[in-house]
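_Backbone structure tokens_
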Amino acid sequence: MDNLTLEHLAPYLPYGVHAQSENADFIITGATTEEVIGDNDLGEQTWDYEDVKLRLRPMPYLTQEIDHNGNKFVPLVELFCIRYNRESFDIVEIKDNYMRISWDKVRSRIDTFMYSESTQSFAFINQESGKQYRIPYQLGMFKKMYSWHFDVDDLIGCELAIDINSIEGKETKGNG
């Protein structure tokens, strides 16, 4: 198993991601190439990378309501709203890794907005033509996912992070 590195941690640094070591829970406040800097009840401390696991939200939670810093929302809807005005569509269905939306008042046109974990990208599927279009300029969407502590790079699968919802003895479901 590899160890967590600054490269893995860097996208989360601006967003106060939670982490844990064998005997401490903390919020990461900084990092060097050698160690992770964090803050907990004992104040600021440092940990070696091999002793740290990030607490991240698995990607399937994109379509579920989460509570992040006291705000409840469905992330995929919020990501879609980065590109489109909330008043311009109605949500028809949300499930798995996609949501179906209606564009007009008579609801005659329904399209799909989705996230593909295999290509790590967002796409839009026009239901009339069946064509799939990759959403341009996705950087803002990915920054949002990092800010909400989503496991964009499968660090949980690599055993470098833990599912934020699986922490025993803590009421963390959906919290960030």
Notes: Residues 75-83 form the longest helix (9 residues). The longest strand covers residues 25-31.
